[in-house]
User: Which sequence fits this backbone?
């Protein structure tokens, strides 16, 4: 039964090697879905990925059916979704970014207070709430009292989802600044306000910008909370108190309507490209800023 | 106002200054000292003796940290700084830090003017140019950076950055200049230049400098303080302290018994 | 004076978070009261009835559906996310290839839920049908596979962090005793970072529990308790997404009550993870 040291060590080496290959294999498999998904969207969506996607509103089911019968490509695009997403996101940014940044500054500047710890935990709590639950809460808060689905309601829901991310990134990037920076500002006789606004915030700007951008990209594709707050619309709407469409909502509609199904791919492709684009852009910016 | 005070030749007077980080223990205890205009005063002592703490009391930096309590009186040109607006105190007492810390988002030009910006003091373009040029000339940085004013300060070398920080401090024309080991992060050549600069700045400013380096104190200071365990053990002319220290502890420190 | 105003603005912004959280809890609780009072809290949780005609509602099928899919997803994701963590945090720590791998995994996290749903529906579902899992392909298995892919980034990024934080001295000590790389991982790296990795998986579980769109598109949307991998079902999130639009009265309140329960479950899970992280960081 006794093995020589030589053979056991070789056996162990082999086992270690094998384990390494297993790790690499699993790791490699995980890389696949991203490309499979991209491939699927490109393969099925490129045909409809044309100018009318950006310039025309979504077609009715009837129009699409007629086109299908006469073997023509489905008319229309997702203009109403594009403008809706833009409107909802802009509103959400206007709500979430100032509050998030101010709160983040407060947390970074008052680290030892119990109140800070409370707000930080609550922010974590908010971040953990499933998006559909945020949707139904905003439904109760906004849609019910206003008796109407609205872009505003959707943007409040998205703003609540963005807030914790913005707060966290602001707090972290301000905390990372050396204390001597703040002291140097104050030592020049600057007031607290001017030191924070003219020195700390600009110095941490890279972090704040990236954080806000990532938050936007994270909520951009959200569908569930919009289903119960903005409902959708078949025309372009710029009124914040009225039902509005969004790219993700249109994808959901196309998915549910067999006549419109071909449009699902081009619109998903567009959504994915924009979301991933913002993601990559934000991260490359973060890298650039860090080097300085 | 200034003339009405008898001892106006003392620009800075410390009276029973104590600083405590927590109620039980004082970081510095009852420091009394007076400092004359246009002198360089070195504060020496082993690590943790309270050198920096004392220096930072002079421009009320301790106000930033609610746990730190400062008691006693510090008179700047006869006026108790604790009766003044802290922002005014800090304008009058410029500070240079251990590590060069130019503001990373500002250009060299804007760094020099940072004090004006932060205090919302409006200057005309000509005035700005003048302040920048004069300040940078005073720190002998003008010739090196005059063509790269719009670049960020972080592109300069460590020694240049530190001179930029000194320029930033003197741009506000402070009464005194507080330096907290300004050369500890620099190489020997940069250190030399800063030391030369201090001797020149003495003509216009009163300088209080914390230093770890005894030979530096000997080279540049007129007067020296020796601090130990939060107490000011000895204060006198640098020459006298290095040749005939009065206190045994000072002598031990200077001869390298501890520290 | 100006500073005082500025400081109060900062404070007020922070207070908004407090108000927001209070508002969330208030809205959920007040809206679900009528469901809880008609059915009783315990009965609502333990009843598997979901009868819109007779207005009789219980949450058991959805609670079980949620737990089963989320736990299965977690189970599926472990070998993959652990491999990524070892790849990035141990084998190729701080190398270029590790940055590439972690960027790709990050991008995976950026894909919107609805796109995952589409892909699951059009690509994975036919595969499951071909494999004979079920006639339609919908169900717990399909939903959990897609969920697993979705939570891999969350589980792996934090795990990577903890594995790469294991001090080199410890590993070198093991190497100097003649251990192989795998033995070092088994006896040093993993045990040292275990609680951190555990917390990472709990956080990932929290994500899986609340995931809505993809699951709604893939689980089959039937109101029964799934007992088999190929069974269809509904999760708490998917029943809300599916039926909220047409609901009113007691049904609306019941959906709200499910929302409240989902909120409580995810909050508890996240709290546990954060608590473990706090202990680890000490």
Assistant:
């Amino acid at each position: 039964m006794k093995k020589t040291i030589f053979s056991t060590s070789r056996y162990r080496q082999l086992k270690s090697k094998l384990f390494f290959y297993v790790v690499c294999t699993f790791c490699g498999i995980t890389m696949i879905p991203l490309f499979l998904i991209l491939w699927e969207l490109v393969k099925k969506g490129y045909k409809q990925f044309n100018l009318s996607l950006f310039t025309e509103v979504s077609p009715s089911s009837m129009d699409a059916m007629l086109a299908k019968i006469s073997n023509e490509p489905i008319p229309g695009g997702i203009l109403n979704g594009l403008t809706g997403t833009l409107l909802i996101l802009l509103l959400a940014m206007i709500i979430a970014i100032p509050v998030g940044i101010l709160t983040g500054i407060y947390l970074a500047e008052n680290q030892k207070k119990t109140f800070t710890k409370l707000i930080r935990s609550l922010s974590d709590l908010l971040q953990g709430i499933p998006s559909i639950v945020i949707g139904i809460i905003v439904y109760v808060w906004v849609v019910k009292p206003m008796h109407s689905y609205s872009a505003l309601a959707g943007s409040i829901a998205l703003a609540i989802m963005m807030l914790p991310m913005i707060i966290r990134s602001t707090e972290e990037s301000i905390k990372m600044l050396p204390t001597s920076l703040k002291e140097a500002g104050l030592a020049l006789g600057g007031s607290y306000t001017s030191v924070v606004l003219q020195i700390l915030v600009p110095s941490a700007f890279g972090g704040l910008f990236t954080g806000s951008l990532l938050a936007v990209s994270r909520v951009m594709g959200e569908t569930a909370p919009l289903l119960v707050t903005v409902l959708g619309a078949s025309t372009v709407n710029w009124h914040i108190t009225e039902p509005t469409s969004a790219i993700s909502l249109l994808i959901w509609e196309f998915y549910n309507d067999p006549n419109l199904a071909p449009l699902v791919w081009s619109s998903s492709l567009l959504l994915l490209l924009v979301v991933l684009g913002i993601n990559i852009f934000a991260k490359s910016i973060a890298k650039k800023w860090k080097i300085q | 106002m200034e003339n009405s005070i008898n001892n106006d030749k003392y620009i800075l007077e410390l009276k029973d200054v104590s600083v405590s980080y927590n109620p039980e223990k004082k970081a510095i205890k009852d420091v009394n000292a007076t400092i004359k205009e246009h002198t360089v005063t070195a504060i020496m002592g082993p690590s943790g003796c309270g050198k920096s703490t004392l220096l930072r009391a002079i421009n009320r930096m301790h106000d930033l940290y609610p746990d730190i309590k400062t008691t006693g009186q510090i008179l700047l040109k006869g006026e108790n700084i604790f009766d003044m607006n802290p922002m005014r105190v800090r304008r009058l007492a410029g500070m240079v830090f251990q590590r060069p810390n130019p503001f990373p988002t500002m250009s060299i030009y804007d760094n020099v003017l940072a004090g004006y910006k932060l205090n919302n003091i409006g200057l005309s373009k000509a005035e700005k140019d003048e302040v920048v040029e004069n300040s940078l000339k005073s720190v002998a940085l003008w010739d090196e950076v005059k063509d790269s004013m719009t670049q960020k300060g972080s592109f300069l070398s460590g020694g240049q950055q530190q001179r930029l920080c000194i320029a930033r401090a003197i741009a506000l024309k402070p009464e005194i200049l507080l330096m907290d080991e300004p050369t500890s992060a620099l190489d020997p050549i940069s250190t030399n230049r800063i030391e030369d600069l201090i001797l020149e700045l003495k003509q216009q400013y009163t300088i209080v400098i914390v230093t770890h380096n005894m030979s530096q104190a000997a080279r540049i200071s007129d007067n020296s303080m020796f601090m130990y365990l939060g107490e000011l053990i000895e204060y006198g002319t640098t020459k006298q302290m290095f040749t005939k220290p009065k206190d045994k502890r000072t002598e031990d420190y200077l001869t390298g018994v501890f520290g | 004076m100006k500073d005082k105003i500025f400081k109060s603005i900062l404070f007020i912004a922070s207070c908004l978070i407090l108000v927001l959280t209070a508002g969330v809890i208030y809205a959920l609780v007040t809206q679900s009261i009528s469901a809880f009072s008609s059915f009783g809290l315990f009965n609502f949780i333990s009843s598997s009835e979901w009868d819109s005609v007779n207005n009789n509602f219980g949450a058991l099928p959805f609670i079980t559906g949620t737990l089963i899919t989320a736990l299965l997803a977690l189970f599926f994701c472990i070998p993959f996310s652990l491999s990524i963590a070892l790849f990035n945090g141990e084998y190729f720590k701080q190398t270029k290839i590790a940055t590439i791998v972690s960027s790709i995994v990050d991008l995976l996290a950026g894909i919107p839920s609805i796109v995952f749903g589409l892909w699951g529906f059009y690509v994975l579902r036919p595969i499951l049908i071909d494999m004979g899992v079920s006639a339609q392909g919908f169900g717990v298995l399909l939903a959990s596979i897609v969920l697993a892919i979705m939570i891999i980034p969350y589980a792996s990024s934090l795990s990577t962090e903890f594995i790469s934080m294991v001090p080199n001295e410890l590993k070198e000590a093991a190497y100097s005793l003649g251990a192989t790389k795998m033995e070092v991982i088994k006896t040093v790296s993993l045990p040292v970072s275990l609680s951190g990795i555990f917390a990472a998986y709990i956080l990932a579980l929290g994500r899986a529990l609340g995931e809505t769109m993809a699951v709604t598109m893939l689980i089959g949307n039937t109101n029964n308790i799934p007992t088999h991998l190929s069974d269809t079902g509904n999760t708490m999130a998917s029943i809300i997404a599916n039926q909220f639009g047409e609901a009113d009265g007691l049904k609306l309140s019941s959906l709200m009550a499910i929302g409240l329960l989902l909120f409580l479950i995810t909050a508890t899970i996240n709290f546990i993870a954060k608590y473990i992280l706090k202990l680890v960081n000490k």
About this structure: Chain C has a mean pLDDT of 94. The two ends of chain C are 40 Å apart (CA to CA).
